[in-house]
Amino acid sequence: MALPAPLTVLMESEGLHSVHYVGFPGPNPLTAEQVLEDAFQQRADLVAISASSLMQNPTDRNRLIAKSRDQLAQRVLLELPLEDEAGMTDSECLALGFVRLAQTDRQRYYLFDLKTYKPVPDWLNPKFWANPQNWDKYRW
Fold this sequence. Notes:
Elements: H1 5-14, E1 19-22, E2 29-30, H2 32-36, E3 44-49, H3 58-72, E4 73-81, H4 90-95, E5 99-103, E6 107-113
Parallel strand pairs: 1-2, 1-3, 3-4
Antiparallel strand pairs: 4-6, 5-6
């Protein structure tokens, strides 16, 4: 079984070398249970989570996504069925910081990328943090 096209395109375009395949066939496939173990802390460039790995109770699903996103990788790819009433909705994915990457005839793909998760606000720069022209003039 081959990897889905959005996953292979992402890996090739970004030059990702270390990937955790959760539920996907790959060089080192993992199960959701293995990733959720406390001892598993191996970082990677990308964590790809298949739709079959997300078909568990919502608590474990959210734990898997949170651990992947917060501890294991800067990028997380979710594969979700196109017609899935019991699974995650678009708004749930957006609320977790994911953006829609691609859609095929049967699957939706969402990507979380830490680098593009939140743009840097304009006020967050040294220009507004201090007034060097007032140093040693006023005591505050």
